[in-house]
Amino acid sequence: MVETQIDVGIFGGSGFYSLLADAREVKVDTPYGEPSAPVVVGEIGGRNVGFMPRHGVRHQLPPHAINYRANLWAMHHLGATDVIMPCAAGSLQKDVAPGSFVICDQVVDRTSGRKDTFYDGPETTHITFAEPYDAEMREVAITAAGKLGITVHERGTLVVIQGPRFSTKAESKWFSAMGWKVINMTQYPEVVLARELEMAALNISLITDYDVGLEDDPDVEPVSHAAVVEVFSANNAKLRDLLFDIVPALPLSADRPARRALEGARFDVH
After folding, report:
1. Which helix (H) or strand (E) holds 235?
2. 25-31: long-range pairs with CB below 8 Å, 24+
3. Is residue 15 pLDDT above 70, yes or no?
4. What is the C-alpha separation between 82 and 85, in angstroms, rounded?
5. pLDDT in tens, 74-100
6. How many whole angstroms separate alpha carbon 209 and alpha carbon 211?
7. Residue 8, φ and ψ in degrees, nearest 5
8. Given 3-state DSSP classes, what are the helix, strand and coil percentages for the chain, each rounded to the nearest 5?
């Protein structure tokens, strides 16, 4: 019996560890080991929410070392049907400026060796993943961002690299040439594991800087550490306001593709 129920799970990124005030920590033991941190449970707009810093409370877990399966299982165990996955990201396109947000609709996996499924057998399971992010949640997020005056790109492809290193210029230029919009190190396998647990997912990419492949462009200002920190702090403040508008407005509809991801996904031999 689960003692604490939540409606929505939120994974925080770098520097975003105190979303909920007057909340309590809930430790969840999972079949996949320790999550990054206990789930901080509280309310937003009368709706129960669970928050977890994906990198740990001291940012001790680099992207490739995060126990994504434990993190997603913990949220599911507490009852979340929807998960919001904000993340810091770099821009791969000139028109996506630092300080803006991207509500991504697609993801490309360029990671390696990460445990990215709950289904290692013997029951073979093939989920549909053509549309990684939930359309209903994306619509709510785009509307809320507009009302708050946040510069938002309504769609885009997010390419996820292994890390912890950043891209070479050649890699970054390749990603840009493919038309991909933003780059990050954590969205995969986070989003596919949510789908396997039939949780709907929303990405909000917080653009902190232009990726290295754009540095040679004369129209792009060279990035500096001070500028990234300044944008990062401003983005976190905007993200908090955005989440407090999104969460109460989510319809949490039961009849969505992610909520029925396991229907017909299993290969049965009779």
Report:
1. helix 225-249
2. 26/50, 26/78, 28/73, 28/74, 28/77, 28/78, 30/69, 30/70, 30/73, 30/74, 30/77, 31/73
3. no
4. 10
5. 999 999 999 999 999 999 999 999 999
6. 6
7. -130, 135
8. 30, 25, 50
Asked if 161 contacts 167 with a C-beta cutoff of 8 angstroms, the reply is yes
Question: Which CA distances in Å does 168 have to 3, 142, 171?
Answer: 47, 32, 5
pTM for the structure as a whole: 0.93
| Active site (catalytic) residues | 209, 211
Where in the chain are the domains? 8-260
pLDDT classification of 269: cutoffs 50, 70, 90 = low
Q: Of the ranges 85-94, 124-133, 136-145, 217-226, which one carries the lowest mean pLDDT score?
A: 217-226
Superfamily name with CATH number, domain 8-260: Nucleoside phosphorylase domain (3.40.50.1580)
CB hemisphere CA count around 28 (13 angstroms): 30
